[in-house]
Each structure stands twice: as structure tokens, then as C-alpha cells.
Automatic annotation (TrEMBL):
InterPro entries: RhgT-like, SGNH_hydro, SGNH_hydro_sf. Belongs to the 'GDSL' lipolytic enzyme family. This is Lysophospholipase L1-like esterase. Gene3D superfamilies: SGNH hydrolase. Keywords: Hydrolase, Signal. Residues 27-197 form the SGNH hydrolase-type esterase domain. PANTHER family: PUTATIVE (AFU_ORTHOLOGUE AFUA_2G17250)-RELATED, RHAMNOGALACTURONAN ACETYLESTERASE. The keyword GTP-binding does not apply. One of its GO terms (molecular function) is hydrolase activity, acting on ester bonds. Residues 1-21 form the signal peptide. SUPFAM superfamilies: SGNH hydrolase (SSF52266). It comes from the Bacteria.
Amino acid sequence: MKKYLLLLPLLWLLMAAQTPKRTIFMVGDSTMANKATKVFPETGWGQVLPAFVDTSRIVVDNHAKNGRSTKSFIETGLWQAVLDKIKPGDYVFIQFGHNDEKKEKPAVYARAETSYQINLKRMISEARAKGAIPVLFTSIVRRDFLPNGRLNDTHGNYPAAMKTVAQETSVPLIDLEAQTHLMVEGAGIEASKRFYLHAPAGAYAGHPNGVEDNTHLSRAGAMRVAALAVESIKVQLPELADCF
């Protein structure tokens, strides 16, 4: 009997090793994407999400790409590449809007009231068909202040369109647009620069002439946005709380 008791911990370890970990697949645009070291300190919030994750329970697989919209992510085969990897019980975090709204670029433009919602619903349906749990994330804000010190709304109808899709499909939604609005406006015009890609000439090798980018995140901004996302995930997806 004692011999069998001694074997139990080994059996538990073997069973745990054979159980595949769940994966969080991230699909989205440049504000979520992994960045090359040559453009540091530019950082996507999906790039730093693994820092918040208990990797013994779940792993993060970030497929977000610069310049992508719901339309181009599907049409260029990036979405199919994610579908091919999904297994039951995985999660798919979906954040698009920054590029869908660019009417001047037909390759990425997806109208908020029509094709944007159709594309999101397709992703949701196909992820569910593979046994995954889709989660929607509204786009983070651009750092675009009005003269009165209030933050300008640059995303138009896209956040509302995503909320409509979430309601119609019963998908959890993390409102990063609202959360980052409070974060940036609360910090103010000057202090909020630290969240975005602002640096003087000579500060970073990848930006020898300096940079002033109010769309893409700095390392500090990415960490802050990821932290906001995690807090909302814990509330809306309590089954994942122990994974962070």
C-alpha cells in the first residue's frame, strides 16, 4: 500500500504533463502586436500580456499584426492560421478597429455598420465551431487632445459597433476604449506622453531623429493597458482569474 501511495505524485505529474495547456490566441492590429527590438520602445499590449500570465496554466500566442483590420486579417490568411491551431477550451482575444476605419485604404477598410460587424461575427462563429471562447476588445484610444484638454474621440462608430456584436452574439467584451480614455485623459496632455511612443532624438537607436507617435504604445503604456485588460478579464471571465 505504501508503494502505491509513493507512486501517486508521479502519476499526477504524468497526467498534468499529458494535459495540453489552454491557449489565449490574440488577433488584432499594431497596438496589440509583438514588436521587433529595432523599434523599441514601441510595444504592443499583447506582447507584454505573458508577463501577467501563469504559464503553468495557460499560454499566450499573439498573432496580431501591424496594419491589419478585420478585413485584411481574414483575406491575407492570418485568421485561418489561427483557426488551424485552435483546440477546444482555448480563448481568442479579438481587437480591431484602428485600421478598419481607414476609408482611404480599401485593402483594410470595413464599414462599422456592415462589413466590420460581419467580419467580427465570422471570427466569433468560426472560433466557437472549434470549441474556443471568443472575447472582444474595443480599440485603445489615440492620444489626441482637444484645446480644452479633453480627449478627442477618433474611433467613431467602431466601439459601439463592436458592443452591438458582443450583445447579439453573447460574447464577453472588454471596453479598452473607455478604460484607456480615462487613463490618458486622467494623466493629462504632458504626462500621458509616457504611454505612447514619444522620445527625443538620440534616445533610442531605432528612432535616431526622435519620435512623436500618439497611436502606438511605449513599453510603459503597453504594460498599463495589459494590466487594465487583465483586471477586466478577471471580472468578466472568472474561470481565468487563477491564470493571471
